[in-house]
Amino acid sequence: MLEIVTRALILGVHVLGGGVWIGAMAFSVFVLHPRAERFFAGSSTFEDLLFTVVHGARWKVVAGIVGIVASGVALTLAGSDASLGPGVGPVWTAIVAAKVALLVCSLALFFYVSWVLWPRRVFASPAELPGLRRRFRVVGVVMIACNTINMGLGILAHSLRAAG
């Protein structure tokens, strides 16, 4: 019983963490930024609002990512043990490898946004801001796609293992 509860908690951390990450990014990219930009059209107040909203969030996101990675590693290690259940094989292994590649892509983009684009945005001239905003949007959409595909692959891997 304890093993089942432990696996359920680990799975919960993994799924909820991924869902929160996708949801927060989708809200930011598709709702907050466009609406705030329209509301503050042409005003530097838009940038001030964004800096205020995201201030201190970087390390919360890093902590969330650590939780997602740690729980994913725990689930993968448990899932790679054929004695724990059927469905583990080359397809399952390939799916997990694809999930790792997508996670690495998302992490690289997150670090690029956090430690390259934000500093550029903070010190950007008004003429540079439109280009930086477009780059933020593109990177955000790619990160959302990577994380959403990653979640779908996780569901597929879980289903294969359960059905195997």
Descriptive account of the structure:
With 164 residues, this protein is mostly helical. Helix content is 85%, strand content 0%. The chain is built from five helices and no strands. The chain has helices spanning 2-39, 45-54, 57-79, 90-122, 129-163. It is elongated, with a radius of gyration of 19 Å. It starts with a helix and ends with a helix. The mean pLDDT is 90.
Secondary-structure blueprint:
Blueprint: H1 2-39, H2 45-54, H3 57-79, H4 90-122, H5 129-163
Structure in a nutshell:
With 164 residues, the chain is mainly α. It has five helices and no strands.
Features:
mainly alpha, elongated, 5 helices, 164 residues, 0% strand
Q: Compute the average pLDDT.
A: 90
Binned strand content: under 5%
The tally of helices reads 5
Termini, distance in Å?
Answer: 22 Å
Q: How many β strands by DSSP? A: 0
What level of helicity do the residues show? Answer: over 70%
Overall structural class, as computed from helix and strand content, comes to mainly alpha
What gross morphology would you assign?
A: elongated
What's the Cα radius of gyration?
19 Å
- Secondary-structure element order, as H and E? HHHHH
Main sheet overview: none
